[in-house]
Design a protein that fits this description.
Elements: E1 5-7, E2 10-12, E3 16-22, E4 27-33, E5 38-46, E6 54-59, E7 66-69, H1 75-88, E8 98-105, E9 116-117, H2 120-128, H3 137-150, E10 156-160, H4 170-173, H5 179-184, H6 194-207, E11 216-222, E12 226-232, E13 235-239, H7 261-269, H8 274-283, H9 286-291, H10 296-304, H11 308-332, E14 337-341, H12 342-347, H13 349-356, H14 368-372, E15 379-380, E16 389-392, H15 397-411
The chain binds adenosine monophosphate.
EC number: 2.7.2.1
Enzyme class: transferase
Protein name: Acetate kinase
Length: 418
């Protein structure tokens, strides 16, 4: 699909991939060159559809960061503005060097286990999954349609957040509810952040000097959204998010695990509607619900000042995290490494310290100095006497999407299935 093209007398090999992550009112993008994995440009359009839209574009091949404010009516206008910014850096989307556009698609259900070249049938299936991903899939579809309109000749690839988790055994993926009801409504545990869990578990194996097939890893993706996964020999066997990203760990604004009876209790006693409870559990719970802040930096600052609500929020967050770590030891049987990633996991040494405290019985011993040292690199932070390695591995979902996209379009296959 991306055989070298001839431009006049010059042969151009298409090695660039544009990665698009389209949200309901935002588009994040990166342009990468898969020749060496380098980043050429990155940026963000936010508040699409409002008067106060903003585009921030950073050329990474030299040149200043640029910002544009003013109304951007829709995703079409947003992508056009991004294309203009890229063109003014000599990186236009009409370039023969662009091999493909890789889209982050949140929900791929059970059908999409691999990155997939997008056609009408694929788009229709992503659309059919809207009821289980009402916030994310519609935005992803708009992003794809917009990019297709801009470059109809170019392969567009969907890389699904759920794909890495499709290897979960039924025992981990099914809820213990009536099977017919579950199947009729596609209710099961899908898991999310899969691109990150895939990337980080592989990088952790690399850090240990091993093949992914040789190691069992617990990945803790702790960002504003947070999820844990148990990865055995490179395959996901359990993850903490479920039908939606609400299940599992305590997050910035989401409750994570909760007795489902809380929902009907609130319906009956507080006369709240389904939408109100949805908003409560997804947007007004977690750290923000517990203490009013969802930024771990602010929570730590408040704790240092003796704030008890911030301390309790932190303790609840850590308690849940440790429960999942213990559970995944049991799921995996043998653990070679625990990897911390995403905004909190990569940066918050106190979270890592509290999560790993008094776990010598599990073979976990943190090296305090290594844990406290700041770095952007993947690194081991466990003490040499620990049986299980503890690592900090910065996640790179855009690189993973670009790599999967490029591998697919250069293989000539329609899915990443071998
Ligand atoms: P993400 O969703 O991966 O972008 O993570 C965002 C979250 O990371 C923020 O809400 C903060 O809670 C957290 N975070 C980012 N930087 C730091 C830091 N230096 N220390 C503690 N937490 C941080």
């Amino acid at each position: 699909m991306t055989a070298p093209r001839t431009e006049g007398s010059v042969t151009v090999t298409a090695t660039r991939v544009l990665v698009l992550n389209s949200g309901s009112s935002s588009v994040k993008y990166q342009l990468l060159d898969m020749h060496d994995g380098s980043r050429l440009a990155a940026g963000l359009v936010e508040r699409i559809g409002e008067e106060t839209s903003r585009l921030v574009h950073t050329p990474l091949i030299g040149g200043e960061k640029r910002e544009r404010s003013g109304p951007i009516a829709d995703h079409g206008a947003a992508l056009k503005a991004v294309a203009d910014e890229l063109a003014s850096d000599g990186l236009g989307l009409d370039s023969p060097e662009l091999a493909a556009i890789g889209h982050r698609v949140v929900h791929g259900g059970l059908r999409f286990t691999e990155p997939t070249v997008i056609d009408d049938d694929v788009l229709a299936e992503v659309e059919r999954l809207v009821p289980v991903a009402p916030l994310h899939n519609p935005a992803n579809i708009i992003g794809i349609r917009t990019a297709q309109a801009l470059r109809p000749d170019l392969p567009q690839v969907a890389v699904f957040d759920t794909a890495f988790h499709t290897t979960m055994p039924e025992a981990a993926a099914r809820y213990a509810i009536d099977v017919e009801t579950a199947d009729a409504h596609r209710i099961r545990r899908y898991g999310f952040h899969g691109t990150s869990h895939a990337y980080v578990s592989r990088r952790t194996a690399e850090l240990l000097g091993k093949e992914p097939s040789e190691v069992n890893v617990i990945v803790l993706h702790l960002g504003n959204g947070a999820s844990a996964s148990a990865v055995a020999g490179g395959r996901c066997v359990d993850t903490s998010m479920g039908l939606t990203p609400l299940e599992g760990l305590v997050m910035g604004t989401r409750s994570g695990d909760i007795d489902p009876a809380v929902t009907f209790h609130l319906m009956r006693v507080a006369e709240m509607s389904a939408d109100e409870i949805d908003a409560l559990l997804n947007k007004k719970s977690g750290l923000v619900g517990l203490c009013g802040d969802n930024d771990m930096r602010e929570i730590r600052r408040r704790i240092d000042e003796g704030d008890e609500r911030a301390q309790l929020a932190f303790d609840i967050y850590i308690h849940r995290l440790r429960k999942y770590i213990g559970a995944y030891f049991a799921v995996l049987g043998r653990v070679d490494a625990i990897a911390f990633t995403a905004g909190v996991g990569e940066n918050a040494a106190p979270v890592r310290e509290a999560a790993m405290a008094d776990m010598e019985g599990f073979g976990l011993t943190l090296d305090r100095e290594r844990n406290a040292a700041r770095s952007d690199e993947a690194r081991i932070i466990s003490a040499s006497e620990g049986r299980v390695a503890v690592a900090v591995v910065p996640t790179d979902e855009e690189l993973e999407i670009a790599q999967q996209t490029f591998a697919l379009v250069t293989s000539g296959s329609r899915t990443g299935n071998p």
